[in-house]
Design a protein that fits this description.
The complex is a heterodimer.
Chain A (H helix, E strand, L loop, with lengths): L6 H15 L4 H30 L9 E5 L5 H9 L3 E14 L2 E10 L9 E4 L6 E4 L6 E5 H7 L6 E4 L2 E11 L13 E5 L3 H4 L9 E7 L2 H11 L8 E4 H54 L4 H37 L13 H17 L2 H8 L5 H4 L14 H15 L2 H35 L2 H12 L1 H34 L8 E6 L1 H14 L3 E15 L2 E4 L4 H6 L17 E2 L5 E5 L7 E6 L10 E5 H7 L6 E6 L2 E13 L10 E3 L1 H4 L5 E6 L6 H10 L4 E4 H40 L1 H13 L4 H38 L8 H22 L1 H5 L2 H8 L1
Parallel strand pairs in A: 3-9, 6-8, 14-15, 16-21, 18-20
Antiparallel strand pairs in A: 1-10, 1-11, 2-3, 2-7, 2-10, 4-5, 4-8, 6-9, 7-8, 12-22, 12-23, 13-14, 13-16, 13-19, 13-22, 17-20, 18-21, 19-20
Helix pairs in contact in A: 1-8, 2-7, 2-8, 2-9, 2-21, 7-10, 7-12, 7-21, 8-9, 9-12, 12-13, 13-14, 13-15, 13-23, 14-23, 15-21, 15-23, 15-24, 21-24, 22-26, 23-24
Chain B lengths: L10 E13 L4 E13 L3 E6 L5 H8 L7 E6 L2 E2 L5 H11 E4 L11 H11 L5 H11 L15 H14 L4 E5 L7 H18 L2 E6 L2 H5 L3 E6 L2 E7 L16
Helix pairs in contact in B: 3-4, 3-5, 4-5, 5-6
Classes of the chains: A alpha+beta, B alpha/beta.
Amino acid sequence: MTSSNNIWYKQSLRLLDHELRRGELTIIFLAIVLAVATVFSLTGFSGQIKHAIVANSTNTIAADRVFGGNGPIDDKFITKSESLNLNVAQKVATDSMVFFGDNMLLSEIDAVSTNYPLRGELKIQRAINGVEEVVGGPARGELWVERSLLSRLGVEIGDTVEIGVAPLKIAGIITNIPDRSYRFLVAGPTILMNVDDLPATDIVQPGSRMWHSYLFAGEPTAIETFEEWIKPQVNDTQRWYDAKRAQNRLSTTLGSAERFLSLASMLGIVLAAVAVAVASRRYGQRHQSVVAVFRALGASISHVRKLYCLHWTLLSVISIAAGLLLGYVLLFMGANAIEEYLSLDDSPLTFTPFITAIVTGLLCAVAFAIHPIKSLIHTSPLSVIRGFSAAKDVQFGWHQLIPLVALLALLLMFSGDIIMSFSLLAGGLLVSIILLGLGRLVMNAGRSVGTKAGKSWHLALANLKRRANENSVQLVSFTIAIKLLLLITVMKTSIIDEWQAQFPEDTPNQYLVNITEEQIAPLTQFTEENDIPHRGFFAVYRGRLTSINGEQTIRIKDNQEDKLANEADKDKENKEKEPEGRRGMGRELGLTWLNDVPQQNKILEGQWWQKDDKTPQVSVESGVAERLDIKLGDELAFNIGGREITASVTSLREVNWKTRQLNFIMIFNQSVLADFPATSISAWNVAPEKKDAFYQLIGQYPTISMIDFDNIMKQLNQMIEQVTIAIELILVLVVLAGSLVLVAQVQASMEERERELAILRTLGAKGSLLRNSILFEFVALGGIAGLMASIGMEIGVFFLQTQTFDMTGSFHFSYWLVGILSGAGFVGLIGMLSCYRLLNLTSVTLIRRTM
Amino acid sequence: MKVHSEVEAESILKVSSLTKSVQLEDKTLALLQPTDLTVNNGETIAIVGSSGSGKTTLLSILAGLDLPTSGEVYLKNHALHQLNEEQRSQVRANHVGFIFQQFLLINSLTALENVMLPAELANIDEAEQRGKALLEKVGLGDRLDHYPSQLSGGEQQRVAIARAFIGEPDILFADEPTGNLDTKTGLHITELLFDLNEQLGTTLVLVTHDPKLAARCQRQVEMDSGVLTQASENSVYVSNENSTVANVG
């Protein structure tokens, strides 16, 4: 006789139904939900952002091709393009001050021709909640601004503001710029103005930083002809690019940000997987008796297998579905949070996040549970007589290959990079082993301390040590989570303050740019009257290093630089030039002349010139000299505004970049540059009480751009704040996953704990002793994690301080306390909550249950 | 399945020259010395003995949970010693009922669902009606939907008894059925077990160290260090010339 065909099906559903309701599958359920939700929301979110920024915009450069450079284009380029029937539009971008009454704001000014854009759509609203219209560049006298400018400058549509010395009327709010630079986090709001209004502003001065873009569009063949013609004529400070290249750069940048977030969230997913593994081991153990009874009562192995396969499959499906739902809610919240910056309304959710999340869920549910389930199914019916095998220590064996491979597959799916996945897995294992060893040491040390401490502590630490294997997983996860949280907190609150505090008192906080010759005298007078420290005015010339000893310099592709480059349209577009010639700077430099060695610069080689020496000479910053292999006596040629100058290197200088003073890579003697027109820059230290007077002064010279360092720091802090919110959110997921592991472990040890408590009870231990011993066990575990996290944080901070911020390392002991206390408190709380039932059992029940 | 022609019609369980030994690192430990035993249809028999005497080992082989090292076991004419795990499962599903010392109810199933389980496995229709009726019979008619954790020890064992009888097994194995219960509850359970057994005419093989419980059986055999001896015959019963035999090998 065989068991009926669908009995297993009914029994499986019955079991699932009861166990779900009785909360016996909660941990596994939550772990899978957590993993799926994390993956779904992150993949979906980053995918949508990418789509919104890159794929969705019909054209990211507002043209078919763009030519960019520091100055106006040669007329022959325009003539040639016209002969090919190409449309040409112009865009000049610079940063400048915008004034409205007493308010001023540094903004990104884009001066465009009226036929801008050539591709894609520029959209504006003429009233706050007005209709969106597709337009070309603004008419003369009018401005279109980004919405955030209104509140930051305190203006409304229709108000007249000043850019430089030109009064211009705000005529609309920009809702879409096709070639948006996405510098919105670091630069001020964007303002579009008519390029013909630019001269009237007076902000274009010799030496001003301007980026001139010429946009070309037309028939593909004409464009290609033009491209072939123009490409050889592009020099190493100019850029020629198409939408694809701009998009590639943008998506590379987004891609690395996305990968970073994914990898951070991997920690959470891995922990969720560990929680599944731990919970499914306990599940397997707990179900041994069920299977044994089933088998003893005559159920066949295939019956049991079918029953559990269905049971586990349904559990996985339910968990994955719930995870997708939760992930969708998170995604929705994320989209709402960034709506101000970027609307995701038009970015459809693709299948990718669904598939990735479902695969993650399945991997977690199957790979991490397959071994316990498999051994469960093969439980011998004899166990009903012989008893059940107790929880064994984790055995190392082939079966552990499956979760490891699954982990690798998960990592691969996220990073798409085999080497990175392997090194992460290996690195992760290594870090875990180190932390494990350390944790063991501390737990052992605690054990000997405990013998001398009170009874509860004694018991607690003895238990901690005995369960060291199980505890180490939680230890590692909590340590990592607490460490990262501490690191972020210290970063946010301390490092930047400390960095700022280390500068001497006269360190500049205001940088003045675009100062004309005539303005120097009144400004100097103001600084003298108001006792404002500064190191003078430096004439700035924008020039390009064209050759070294007669050998042409070229832009050498620098991979690292390329990866770090984060602007789509500016700075560092790679050239496809043949690498013939010497390595050059690859960008324009700010050049200056000086009679004396600047303060805090040290001559390493050669000698500084005499004041009236007319021989063309240049002093080179030592780091650059080393990179470009420049030696004393080398002849350097520069192109400044189309004119070529040559000077020989007579000294190499070490520059202290840490001072926040104005520093120059190339400094000439006066006679070399004296004939060139220039504007000056200056760095002042304006005390807070003198700021009003200072702003009044700046108000009188609207063509001068003022960069307020304090303001930049404020913006930087805000940026860090925004970035850390994202990281903190992920860390919350990590902490959740870690807690799941903890709860799963506690549940796995529940029977053993019951037995111990019963024995202690029988021996006459008081309730308070038992309660405290359990509490202290978790408190100690959390405390140890907090301690190790603090050490890890301090190491991390030390590296940040010495490597990134170039400052001396310092200790942050108050945060150690935060780490240890929060670890002890949190783990103690979670532990007590998960032991709630155990602690509430009366001793009679306890003894009866376990005897 | 093989049917042993020599097994008399009235015997349900027949064991001959049965041994069981386990291999420890370098030596063999004999758990059961060569043993012969015949149990007749409808008979009640108690295997008594101290802890570690081997009575539980014998029970697990008799019930087809374990295989002997040598010798033969016939249950309802099935040669258990020649069957694999799956085939023995089927024999158990169709002919055997169990009562365990630790009750071994499935915690996540209700009392009724626990009782229904063997009937479902044996493909018996009306498992639910039968289960309800049996729970009514053991006095738990109002606790059908309770989980084992909501029942006392005695109540749990009553559920286990109901479960043991639902499939109307030909033979019932009980392993220290009162071992986890207090004396009074134990007595109630004993009554219940023997009452139901009598009503349904089931063969009962009972392992216990409790002499009072053993005394309720028609026949007692004693295990001592793996050797089975006939202890007493409560209601004089001799099967044949070397009836219940313990053969010291």
